[in-house]
Amino acid sequence: MSLINVNNLTFSYPGCYDNIFENVNFQIDTDWKLGFIGRNGKGKTTFLNLLLGKYEFSGKITSTVNFQYFPFQVSDTTINALDVVENLIPDYEYWMLIRELNYLEVSEEILYRPFSTLSNGEQTKLLLATLFLKDNSFLLIDEPTNHLDQKGREIVSNYLNKKKGFILVSHDRAFLDSSVDHILSINRTSIEIQQGNFSSWFENKKRIDNFEITTNEKLKKEIGRLKTSAKEKATWSHRIEASKFGSGSADRGYIGHKAAKMMKRSKTIEKHQNDAIEAKSKLLKNIEPSESLQIHQLNFHNDTLIKLSDISIFYNGVSVCEKIGFNIEIGDRVALCGKNGSGKSSILKLICGESITFNGTLEINNQVKISYVSQDTDYLQGHLSDFIYDNSMDENLFRSMLIKLDFSRSQFEKEIQFFSSGQKKKILIAKSLCEKAHLLVWDEPLNYIDVISRMQIENLLLEFKPTIIFVEHDAMFCNKIATKTVLL
After folding, report:
1. Do both 329 and 231 map to the same domain?
2. 99 part of a folded domain
3. Cis peptide preceding 289, ω within 30 of 0
4. Model-level pTM?
5. For the segment 235-250, what is each residue's pLDDT rounded down to a tens digit?
């Protein structure tokens, strides 16, 4: 066991006025399995890069272990997977690698194929197995689930549960619950560590939030009472002071003394009031704003929107799925499930009218309006104002959606290509929520999306009950949202 110590860490990017981290202090045991959570753009990947020594910062980070980042770029993807392993760890033991691959339910034969021919899931598993062969290493695992189907997530989660010594960035709640024994959370004003998994952390957070909200309400009432009282006392002391100069034979010395006493008491009350306001400002510091989203889906004159009968889809003459059939009715929330490569995204693209080679019957009423969220966000670039104009959106509504999804107003001045992957995905979701449509078609909408925003989106779909067909590997999301499941 050894320790990673972070002392007075302060960091901001060049040209930025706001610090990402400010005087942060905490300690990590290198035997811990840490889940790292926080809203998109709050600095999770930045912190991992600070541990790797990529940026200059104020403060101190000390450790006796080496940090290894996942995922990393394989420079030559044409070589065999075994050569990739040997380039990473020249002195590894072959039998140990095979043991790790067996834990991950990956066949030994992938080692003798070009790395580029491996599926994303196979690449993820191979590189994880390789990194855990390194001695005296602490792994920084950054969102490994984005290319894994539900089965793959279960396998990798069980694998990580048997390991120790890593920080895992993930927004998949079930995945975190099965993988970690501590939570490292970036809050609005701090970084904190708690023992337990995501569910225990979230329950504790709700208790703390509820306490702060209750205390805040009490303070607001107390501040209101103090303001009224201070105003009355100040008025009273001024009246007494003014009475010194009226007619009659009053004892002006006595009245002046009484007025001064009242003024002093008024000042004391005012100080208490300011202290109370300051105390209030310290409350709610880590409550994440999570305002309700809204959607106004169009009504349709028919109960059935889409019918698929005996659909088989082909790429380069090879079928990826066969004999698929189901209907989408008004109010359905359809989850398309299956392994990677089983044709889920292809069916969504087919529904959206893309040119896909298929057999079978697809019936879509020509009046059905569809709003599509794709997996890909790489094409997003330029200024948000241009994106709004190009997509003919209501600017106020779109910006309101993004603010509710934790966009700061300063982000509206940045170019989209500089946003995090999660922020780009939020742009597509906000666009979809602004569009007037009969059917939502969402392809892995939660990739890179933070946990709090996932819950907002869940609550939206459960409250407004739009008609939607989606592909998503977050098991908790699927279980809560889907009213119909189609297994490919």
Report:
1. no
2. yes
3. no
4. 0.75
5. 655 665 565 555 555 5
